[in-house]
């Protein structure tokens, strides 16, 4: 009987434990993607990017003799219907770790099992299952460095090869059309502006990894902090949809380390930051929805997201160039350099005293590399309310940060057109991407800071001290 292979955020053929195991059985394999409430609830950019990823993955499956069957509805009902239609005896998938997916998958597993369907969920979205790393006293890690020390020497299985052919069923079930799903409909900004920055699918992801290991990793230690260089792997976009497995990245990093490339260990450490985010989300899912340190609930965060200060932050018009450059980079490319993510998050939560959830939601809407665990950890780290966070009183100064990390202003000039006689194409692309209703033009005067670097620091510190910390 056929095996239903339920794809989710694992849009690849190589190092895919469930697909590999299914093909090994020699039974027909029917790949399925279900557009359920979790898909409908995605932010605009991640949903649009998912649509591109699905189209690409469907083609990759076709080249192996298979088809990606698309269905909408409640995941359990869809899978039950497909079991009935196809006579499948098994439903296999790759595990997810966010609380909503876990609840859904548990429900699906129990119900299908009850009906005698063989269900299997396999590991591969992470290097290490989040419950397998324990402190000496049996708890979970709340600090990164001991977590890194605990995992760095653990074995990671070598990546599995892609199947050369996927056995097909006698007849394919009906599929909905991807175009009818309109997964890009909520993109406020011009998708055509963002699209050139997308690197779609497994081969592109492998290409990114190869290029990084060939020419960037050796300088990664320094270059990763400089937003004007192209010094990082940019793999987060592909990792977020599983277009490449973390194990594939890990082994490439290990090989580079063995070859003596200096930045390789730092790259492995960054991959472990991703693991740490999942470890935290698994053990404390509240990290997604509220202050991880609950005493922060008393902090006077401003929660009004209609304030002009918040709008200026979202639109890259705070008058603080490093902040505005980061926000515009995200709007045009769907990504933002990590240094800029830290600066814009610090400015929103400290200088503007705004709740990190407002920033988290804006990122969730704008990032093509959106990841629930990394985004929540990043925001709570920046705000000071998370585990192992930067202390609240350590307020990033966005002006001195720019002097340090963008001394020649290459990054801010790349993204901010106002005030430049001949702005470059990326700075101009921003104005093609934004809705007309924002009423911004490249020839506008660049604004004065809405909250200056020093003034905001003082405001943040007194709010913090008044709370009795
Ligand atoms: P590289 O430097 O090449 O690193 C390799 C990989 O390691 C990345 O692809 C990523 O998977 C992982 N990684 C690196 N840094 C981190 C980190 N700090 N936390 C977790 N994983 C990390 N990352 C996301 O993938 N999605 C998000 O939604 C996201 N939101 C963030 C929000 C804030 C406020 C902050 C401060 C950080 C956020 N990050 C997020 C983490 C980080 O900025 C990105 O992972 C990184 O910029 C991706 O670029 P890269 O692939 O070139 O990274």
Automatic annotation (TrEMBL):
Q: Which GO terms describe its biological process?
A: response to light stimulus
Cofactor: binding details: Binds 1 FAD per subunit.
**What is its cofactor?**
(6R)-5,10-methylene-5,6,7,8-tetrahydrofolate; FAD
Q: Identify this protein by name.
A: Deoxyribodipyrimidine photo-lyase
Site Electron transfer via tryptophanyl radical: give positions. Answer: 301, 356, 379
Could you state a single Gene Ontology molecular function term?
A: deoxyribodipyrimidine photo-lyase activity
Family affiliation? Belongs to the DNA photolyase family.
Q: Does the keyword Flavoprotein apply?
A: yes
Q: Where does FAD bind?
A: 220, 232-236, 267, 369-371
